[in-house]
Every structure is written in structure tokens, then in C-alpha cells.
Design goal:
The chain is of the alpha/beta class. The chain contains 19 helices and 15 strands.
């Protein structure tokens, strides 16, 4: 059977779609990808005539994709439309939306394969685990299967699906990889705790790691077949398992030998760990600071770490010869401008190579999203969440502070780099939101990421392509 995945735009490799595609192809099905930013998916569907239309959704994008699906279904009215990803997992009731035939909850590889197998065989698919279906006005809710215990049993992600259709991602020398699934921590803003709540009782392990050899085989395949100069591991916390890290840092230089980036956590950072990473070729790490106010960081965000722990970890990373990108959230529920300025001061004390900052988005069914709703901090509803975490907040703040918090997000990284700008920044935060602040933020971020966090050599053509893609992204 033919399966057409549809995605709005490509930022970096869509990991979920690539994993689904490799499993479907291994089962004998045909898979294509339509990227709306570079082609009309309606025309693509009319020409290719898929039996299944598939979409992976984050909260905030659901209306875009359900509207798009209705347009595509006019060209292929007999196609079966399925939706998954974070939004489908936490909001399976979207099955009620017109044109939605199935919603996948949780891990999708085997659920998707079983569905397409059934449809290809002309069999009713309505009893397949992990799926909600709609049949004759009735919603059918199937139970969850256990999470995949051994991730090595999956075929390697189908990167050809993306690289053959998106020239800039194919030619980019930075490529992204993931080594495991799950997280042992319960930060209130993250989906991991809510995801685990869904899977309790299924005899699943909360954190699963691919073997080092399996990960290196994927990186080696990409290195052998596509341009690759810098490796980015996007795992939330790359350093959870010490034995795994020790094996990885021993083998990686010989098998791959390219600089790489990974994410760490302050309470797990030690001089020994940093030395291991540095010897293996690690150039930079990411680490969450999130909030400068102790009460906000530890009680509301559930980070369970002191300022001293964070500052010490940052110093250890710098002294170990690695660049650091910090991540932070502004506009937290119950917070105010003064607390966000505390976050700015903590970052100045930590001296990261780049201070990445987001406007908090109250994703529903995360603990912090529900805290925002129950506390009356929302202006509007969850349906108003913006697809980007850089543009605007839907939370309520003290009089006159919302605009200043949104503007602070644009100024934040520059002021961390040049603290003397604080005196200039404070009165300018009161001005209306404007494209100058956006451009200032975008250009400094692009420079710092390219030169410090993901350093790699580019030709003039590659540089122009990279800047072009970067400036178009939401």
C-alpha cells in the first residue's frame, strides 16, 4: 500500500516520520513525503494516489493539518487519514474532527505497520492496539501495547525519504540523531511525565537506549552516503547511563571521528564526564537552566537543583574546553518580569556561549500546562497556542509586563553576552513588538550557533543555503 506523509516544512530531520517509514518499507509498503513549503500536497496526492495519508502533529499545529487533510481528501477521497505525534497522543479525541479516520496514541512504528498491513489486505483495522478509530459514528478506543523494549530491533531511520526530497537538509553538513527514548526526570513543562502516565501498567521501561554500535552504524551510514561534518544528538539527556557514555566515548572517535553536540543536565555534570566527552570529539553541549528564581525553578518546574549546582556545572563545562548553550523559559505561569530578569542574571553568572530562550507555551496535559489553566493564567484557551515558542505568550501577566517579557526574549542572549546592554535594554522593553528586535535576535542566534555551538566549515554556497533556510523557519 502507498503511504503519503505530509509535513509543513523541514527544520531538521523529522525523526518520527523517518522511523515510521523504515518500518513500513521493511513490511513491503511504498512511502512518500510531501513538504508543503516546496510543493502542493493536493497535486502530489492526486498524482500518486496514496491509500493512507499520515500526519505527525505537535499541539498548535492541529488545525493547520486537519484543514490541509480535508483539502487533500478531495483529491483522494478513498484515502485513510491518520494522525499521530504528541498532539494525537495526548488528544486522541481529535478523532471526532471531520476527515480524521484514525489517531495513533504513543509509539507508532508497529501500530502504523499493523494498520497499513490490514488495509492492504482488505481487512478491518479496528482492533489494532494504540489506535482510536471512527466507524459509523462510533469511536473505537483500543488499548496500548508495551513500548519497544529493544530499540535495536527497529531498522535504521529512513533518511533517504527526507534527503531525496529536501535539498538543503540533504546537503547540510550538520545532521541530527537520537540515541534513545524516554527520560527519568519529571520536569513539569515536559511531556515525558505525561507520556509515562499513559504507559504505566504496560510493563514498559521508562528509559530505553539504543546500543552504542547501533547508533554508530546509523551515523556511519550517513557519513558514507551524505555530506556530514558535525553530528547533533538531540536526546533530552544524553548522559543518563554512565556505562553507555563510557563505551560511546571510547568507540566514537575511531568509528566516526567528527565533532558532535549533545545535551547534559547540571546535576550529572562532573569533570570526568566533561573530559570523556571532550576526548571523544564533543565540541559543545546544551543544558537547561530554565529559571533563575529558586521557587519557580524547583517548586513549579520541578527541576530540583540549586543555583550553585547550575553555576558549578557551567564552570566545569567551560573549563573542560566545551562550548555551552543554555536553555531558558520566560513568561512562566505565576511569574513576572522581575523573575525573568533573575533568569537573565543567572545566565550572566553562568557565561554560556549562547543563551537560548523561549516563551513558555502551556501545552495541555503537561503538569505545567494544567497548572496554568487551573490557576487562571491563560488568556484564551489551549487552542490559542502558537506553533512557535519565540513569538508570543498566551498567559496573563501584571499590567504592562507581557510586552516587556516578549521583548526580553529577543534581547536576552545579547545581554547575556554583553551585560552592559542591560541599561540600554530596560527602557526599550516597553516599546511595541517589532521586526528589529526579531532580526537582532535571529542574527545573533545564527552567528553564535554557527561559530560556537555547531562549528563547521562551509563553502559560500552552503553558507547562503543555510542562512536562507534559517531565516525562513518559524
Amino acid at each position: 500500500m502507498r503511504v503519503l506523509f505530509v509535513i509543513k516544512q523541514i527544520d531538521y530531520e523529522p525523526m518520527g516520520i523517518m522511523h515510521l517509514s523504515s518500518v513500513l518499507k521493511a513490511a513491503g509498503h511504498e512511502v512518500e513525503l510531501s513538504i508543503v513549503a516546496q510543493e502542493d500536497p493536493v497535486l502530489k496526492a492526486r498524482e500518486w494516489q496514496p491509500g493512507v495519508l499520515a500526519y505527525s502533529l505537535s499541539t498548535g499545529s492541529q488545525d493547520y493539518y486537519t484543514d490541509l487533510n480535508r483539502q487533500i481528501r478531495q483529491a483522494v477521497p478513498d484515502a485513510f487519514s491518520v494522525f499521530g505525534g504528541a498532539h494525537g497522543t495526548f488528544f486522541p479525541e481529535m478523532i471526532e474532527v471531520e476527515g480524521v479516520d484514525g489517531v495513533c496514541i504513543g509509539e507508532g512504528e508497529y501500530a502504523m505497520r499493523d494498520l497499513v498491513d490490514a488495509l492492504a489486505a482488505g481487512q478491518p483495522p479496528y482492533d489494532i492496539a494504540n489506535w482510536w478509530f471512527k466507524r459509523a459514528g462510533e469511536v473505537i478506543k483500543n488499548p496500548l501495547r508495551a513500548l519497544i523494549a529493544n530499540l535495536d530491533e527497529l531498522p535504521l531511520p529512513d533518511r533517504d525519504l527526507v534527503y531525496q526530497r529536501h535539498r538543503l537538509t540533504r546537503q547540510a553538513k550538520i545532521k541530527h540523531f537520537i540515541t534513545g527514548r524516554g527520560c527519568p526526570y519529571d520536569c513539569s513543562y515536559c511531556f515525558n511525565h505525561a507520556y509515562w502516565d499513559i504507559y504505566k501498567g504496560t510493563q514498559s521501561k521508562r528509559v530505553r537506549q539504543r546500543s552504542v554500535d547501533n547508533v554508530l552504524a546509523e551515523v556511519a551510514y550517513v557519513k558514507d552516503h551524505y555530506p556530514l561534518g558535525f553530528v547533533v544528538f538531540v536526546d533530552d539527556t544524553f548522559i543518563v547511563f554512565k556505562d553507555w557514555v563510557a563505551e560511546f566515548t571510547l568507540k566514537y572517535p575511531d568509528v566516526i571521528g567528527l565533532p558532535f553536540f549533545c545535551n547534559v543536565r547540571a546535576n550529572l555534570v562532573t569533570p570526568e564526564l566533561v573530559a570523556q566527552l571532550q576526548r571523544a570529539g564533543c565540541a559543545s553541549v546544551g543544558m537547561g537552566i530554565e529559571a533563575g528564581n529558586d521557587e519557580m525553578r524547583n517548586r513549579v518546574l520541578r527541576r530540583s537543583m540549586s543555583k550553585e549546582t547550575i553555576i558549578t556545572a557551567c564552570r566545569t563545562i567551560r573549563e573542560g574546553g566545551l562550548h555551552l548553550i543554555s536553555t531558558n523559559m520566560l513568561g512562566l505561569p505565576g511569574g513576572d518580569l522581575a523573575q525573568d530578569l533573575e533568569t537573565l542574571e543567572l545566565n550572566i553568572a553562568c557565561r554560556p556561549s549562547y543563551a537560548n530562550t523561549f516563551l513558555f507555551q502551556p501545552y495541555p496535559r503537561t503538569a505545567l500546562g494544567e497548572y496554568a489553566r487551573e490557576g487562571g493564567y491563560l488568556e484564551g484557551s489551549f487552542e490559542d497556542i502558537y506553533t512557535s515558542a519565540w513569538e508570543t505568550s498566551i498567559l496573563r501577566f501584571p499590567e504592562g509586563e507581557k510586552r516587556q517579557i516578549e521583548n526580553l526574549q529577543k534581547w536576552f542572549a545579547l545581554v547575556v553576552e554583553f551585560p552592559w546592554l542591560k541599561r540600554i535594554m530596560r527602557p526599550l522593553l516597553k516599546l511595541p513588538r517589532n521586526r528589529l528586535y526579531w532580526l537582532m535576535h535571529k542574527l545573533w542566534k545564527g552567528y553564535a550557533i554557527k561559530q560556537r555551538i555547531h562549528p563547521h566549515k562551509l563553502t559560500l554556497r552552503e553558507y547562503v543555503d543555510m542562512v536562507s533556510l534559517y531565516m525562513k523557519l518559524d
